[in-house]
Amino acid sequence: MFKRLSILFTLILALSTFFSSFAFAENNVKPNLVSLGDSITYGWNLEKETDPTNSQQSLKAFPYLIGNGNYVVSKNISGGGWTSGDLLLEINKPENLEAIKNADVITLDIGSNDFLQHPAFQALRADPTTPIDPQAFSIVIQQISVNLFNNLGSIMGTIKAQNTDAPIIVYNIYNPFSDTLAALYPVGEQFLPSVNQGFQGFSIQFNSLLADAYSAFKGQQSALIFPAGDVHPNEAGQQVLAGISTDLLAAQVPAEITVDLTPSITATAEEAVTITVSTNAKKALAMQWLVGDLTLEDFAIAGTDITDNKFQVTENGTYTVYVRDSFGANSVASITIDNIKEAEAEPTPIPVINPPPTTGNPVTPIPINTSPTTPTTTGNILPNTATPMYNYFAIGLGLILSGLVAMKTQQYRRRENN
Fold first, then answer.
1. Which pairing describes strands 284-291 and 304-305: parallel, antiparallel, or unpaired?
2. 415-to-114, 210, 401, 409, 410 alpha-carbon distances in Å
């Protein structure tokens, strides 16, 4: 039992060490993404076979597909039927503000429900043959648009107040009506181009990246949207939405992240040398160092954080620096320090023994007879080579005899008992 428990404990310890290192690697290497949106971002109906009530967000939704797995979705702030007003309320919750603050990339896809939930659109969806008054319809679109972009401005202001560094990807609105629905598809094409012009100006105003979902879906609704009047993207549609962001982020990454290391002094140094790190990354989200000539994989397990692009070393050797930006690009560079002078060991001082001070009458030393003398001895003494070997021999012999007696006695008693 003890042996089995030992083996089990060893296996648990090994597995926990492996998985803790793996989790750290994930957090260290991959930038985190926060997604804001409605049912599209939520992944509505993507799991309808196993989750018909859409009780859980789907990992097939586009935020989880961005960058082909090179990003970690730390927070998906979205919900079914959410309008821009709903999202504005949600992102102001403390836990969501904290997620936005720590985000490396933010996506924003909202606005479809501002239109679809309006009574005029609900009437059209219920009965596509409902006649449309062009003038009245235009006024409705204008009212919805004004409210939408007011809310979007507040949402963006909230984001910027928490995080000024993360790139923000803003999706415009695709035509949610399949091109096979002849009565509704033209309605979307009538007002969405002007609305999406507003998204273009909005992205420029807030220095964000515009994800053109409208163009990507135009004429492809039957392939990218669920059938039977559903307005949500299917798996192929979600992959298209993710691909737009992937391409936008890839375009922001420099051809190569450069990392340059400069020592504070190249002459012989009596003290620590400060190494300064410079890079062409727009924002270095991770900057760490380790001892040795290392690779990217080494920093997936460990690394010492660098503050203010500088760190100090006190010993000669090779040091490697790792840099990662918000787009997932990373690089390493090494530097060898060999100019730190090692401190010389100080010799151990020889103690000086001073004679005690003399007080009173001086003492006359007793003369020492240095002539050879023959020592006088009485009785017999052991020579210098004598040892207690014979004593040990006698004790050992006694023990052997005692053992033989005990053995014979035990054998005799066994015969008597038989």
1. antiparallel
2. 106, 104, 21, 10, 9
- Cβ(337)–Cβ(317) under 8 Å? yes
- What are 318's strand-pairing partners? 336
pTM of the predicted structure, to 2 decimals: 0.67
> Can you tell me the distance from the alpha carbon of 86 to that of 147, in angstroms, rounded to the nearest whole number?
12
Please answer whether residues 341 and 271 qualify as being in contact, where contact means their C-beta atoms are separated by less than 8 angstroms. no
State the Cα–Cα distance between residues 133 and 139, nearest whole angstrom: 10
CA dist., res. 97 & res. 15, Å (int) = 35
Strand partners, 276: 262, 310
Question: How does residue 376 score in pLDDT terms, banded at 50, 70 and 90?
Answer: very low
Q: Which two tokens stand for residue 306?
A: 């660098």
Contact 156, 203 (CB under 8 A): no
Element (H, E) at 77: strand 72-78
Question: What b-and-e string marks burial along 128-140, b requiring 16 or more CB atoms within 10 Å of the CB?
Answer: eeeeeeeeebeeb
The backbone torsions φ and ψ at residue 15, rounded to the nearest 5 degrees and listed phi first, read -65, -40
134-162 helix and 94-101 helix, angle to the nearest 10 degrees: 70
Residue 182 structure tokens? 């002849």
Residue 227 region, left (φ>0) first, then alpha (ψ -120 to 50), else beta? beta
Residue 9 or 177, more confident: 177
Q: Which domains does the chain have, with CATH numbers?
A: 31-252 (3.40.50.1110), 259-337 (2.60.40)
Say if strands 317-325 and 304-305 run parallel, antiparallel, or are unpaired.
Answer: unpaired
Nearest to 40, CA basis, from 225, 243, 247, 180: 225
Note whether 138 and 195 are within 8 A (CB). no
Type of residue found at 388: P
d(CA 81, CA 304): 45
Residue 384: band (very low, low, confident or very high) from pLDDT cuts 50, 70, 90: very low
Residue 387 buriedness (CB in 10 A; 0-12 / 13-18 / 19+): exposed
Q: What is the pLDDT of residue 130?
A: 82
Give residue 352's identity as a one-letter amino acid code.
V
Model pLDDT, residue 170: 98
Please, are residues 174 and 115 in contact by the beta-carbon 8 Å criterion?
no
